[in-house]
Design goal:
The structure holds two protein chains of two kinds. Chain A is mainly α. Chain A has a domain of 29 residues. Helices cover 53% and strands 0% of the residues of chain A. Chain A contains two helices and no strands. Chain A is elongated and about 50 Å long. Chain B is an alpha/beta fold. In chain B, the strands form eight sheets. In chain B, strands 1, 2, 5, 6, 7, 8, 20 and 21 form an eight-stranded mixed beta sheet that branches. In chain B, strand 6 and strand 7 form a beta hairpin. Chain B starts with a strand and ends in an 11-residue tail after the last helix. The chains are: A mainly alpha, B alpha/beta. At the A-B interface, helix 1 and helix 2 of A face helix 6, strand 17, strand 25, strand 26 and helix 9 of B.
Chain lengths: 58, 484
């Protein structure tokens, strides 16, 4: 085991305390199948749009 | 009859050779020179590195694929380019050195009419003392490295199951690294896997990066519209790490890696150390060390290559401060200014400068993320270069296709945990890759085409891309219909 004597600071004193965190509902939606099926279609369309635009270079 | 020689069989080289073969007549030859016998779909090495895939699931042998499609394959590394031929014979050629088992070191001269240099990077572990699998840290840059990393992870998990705490440090092993996105994928997959193996409570996970801000990814970060705000990417990256309990150290340059301990310094000037049980740190890249020789045998490498080994193309390489960098500095045809029948594609071309603002530590060490040019841009550049070469062979006076990273977008899916029901991935699009503050003065990018979100749908897309791009790389029926 590594010498971890240099302690990392506890969360409430570190950068985590100032970071934006998702709510439980947001986290739930990330794996909620009906919503993700919709997002699957939307993200694919967005990606196809960027691929088409990149090939035309405009 | 003409001969097109492609050096390298990674994403850019493989794409270029496949399209050149498709577009040229059967009388013309396409020759691929690669030191490796197989193709590696590198984005999926992340899953090899956490033990979810075997190397055989992200690689396949190239020779049968090339044989089926009429591409000559030479398993060798390129040593030198002779763009003016030799005295008495002006035909240009490259010298290659065999890496085939049983024939190591055998040299051969391969003549070309057009040369596409897609040699990719040299993994420059030597830039940091003790970095890399030959030193004291791990890597996922090749399928072999990733398999070693997975084995090290299994050992760490065993120790955690015995009750030991383990510290994992993941990130960049030098201040001038690129591909922060790959390390980002690895750390969030690692965290997900430790939860899946029920040992997360025994792990300290630390992100150590050369990025000035989280979410920079070597492309100056990005801004997206979300929740009524235009928000920079560091907010989302920090949010994901905070949610997963991952600590982060930014603006760092790793100076030395020792067994179980690494030394780093930061832009702010602190020289620090951190202990680790498991460190997966990416190396900086350089060119593969190709030399250029004129017909008398004199070394003219400096006319074709930058000092870092990447090949000069149609970019503006004049030194200028960050404030004067422009999207117009970036190359569009990838043609060598010294030799019109030589092109570079993918990581092999020398970028004019970084995208992210470069900084250094008070001791002068660089903390300057290098620009990413992997994946989609590499493939698009490879295809554009192949088209230009084919058209020039048909009589076009110069390159006919452009693929500037300042006029090109990218779609990227970064896995954040692999499971068909509980996994997630960050789906991103960005346009253009190189910010253009003349066209888009406020953020450098078109916010209608720049977005990102995390969710299970992204993981499904990642799985789809894994199978789709391996199918395409195997040049199966209909391969050319799959976009780059």
């Amino acid at each position: 085991m590594a010498d971890t004597s240099e302690k990392l600071e506890p969360p409430h004193l570190g950068e985590h305390f100032y970071a934006t965190k998702p709510t439980r509902f947001t986290v739930f939606l990330r794996t909620f199948l009906p919503w993700q099926a919709v997002r699957f279609a939307v993200i694919n369309l967005k990606m196809l749009r960027i691929i088409r635009r990149s090939h035309t270079g405009h | 009859m003409s001969r097109v020689v492609v050096l390298g069989a990674g994403v850019a080289g493989h794409t270029a050779s496949a399209f050149a073969r498709r577009w040229l007549s059967k009388r013309d030859e396409v020759v691929v020179v690669s030191p490796l016998s197989g193709y590696n779909w590198i984005p999926s090495n992340i899953w090899v590195g956490v033990g979810l895939l075997e190397p055989s699931q992200v690689t396949f042998p190239l020779a049968p694929v090339y044989e089926r499609h009429g591409i000559e394959f030479k398993q060798a590394r390129a040593v030198s380019i002779h763009p003016g031929g030799r005295e008495g014979d002006p035909a240009p050629y490259v010298t290659i050195e065999s890496t085939r088992p049983g024939h190591p070191g055998e040299r051969e001269e391969v003549r070309y009419d057009f040369l596409i240099n897609a040699t990719g990077p040299k993994l420059n572990f030597g830039a940091t003392e003790g970095l890399g699998p030959a030193g004291h840290s791990l890597s996922v840059c090749t399928d072999g490295h990733a398999a070693e990393t997975a084995a090290a992870l299994d050992l760490a998990v065993e120790r955690m199951r015995r009750g030991e705490r383990q510290r994992f440090v993941v990130g960049t092993g030098h201040g001038a690294c690129t591909c922060e996105g790959a390390a980002f994928e690895y750390i969030v997959n690692l965290e997900f896997e430790l939860r899946a193996r029920r040992v997360r409570d025994k792990a300290d996970i630390v992100w150590l990066t050369n990025e000035y801000e989280m979410g920079d990814f070597g492309m100056g970060g990005m801004h997206i519209r979300r929740g009524g705000y235009i928000t920079p990417s560091n907010i989302f990256a920090e949010s994901l790490f905070a949610e997963r309990g991952i600590r982060w150290i930014t603006r760092s340059h790793v100076r030395k890696v020792e067994p179980g301990r690494l030394h780093y310094e930061t832009v702010e000037g602190g020289k620090r150390e951190i202990g680790f049980d498991f460190a997966m740190l990416l190396p900086p890249f350089s060119g593969v060390g190709l030399r250029a020789l004129d017909r008398t045998g004199a070394d003219v490498t400096a006319t074709m290559f930058q000092p870092n080994g990447f090949m000069k193309v149609d970019a503006d390489y004049s030194p200028k401060p960050y404030e004067e960098w422009s999207a117009r500095d970036w190359p569009s045809t990838y043609q060598s200014p010294a030799h019109p029948n030589v092109f570079a594609a993918g990581i092999a071309f020398a970028p004019p400068h970084a995208i992210s603002r470069p900084r250094q530590t008070p001791s002068g060490a660089p903390v300057a993320p290098a620009p990413p040019r992997t994946g989609m841009p590499s493939a698009m550049i490879g295809k554009a270069v192949a088209r230009s070469v084919v058209d020039m062979l048909a009589g076009a006076p110069g390159p006919t296709r452009k693929a500037s990273m300042s006029r090109m977008g990218a779609a990227c899916v970064a896995s954040a945990g692999a499971n068909p029901f509980r996994g997630t991935a960050v789906s991103m699009t960005v346009f253009p890759i190189v910010p253009d503050f003349e066209r888009y003065p406020e953020y450098g990018r078109d916010l209608d085409h720049t977005f990102g979100e995390i969710g299970l749908a992204g993981h499904w897309i990642k799985i789809l891309l894994h199978h789709m791009f391996l199918y395409k790389a195997r040049l199966r029926p209909g391969w050319s219909l799959i976009p780059e």
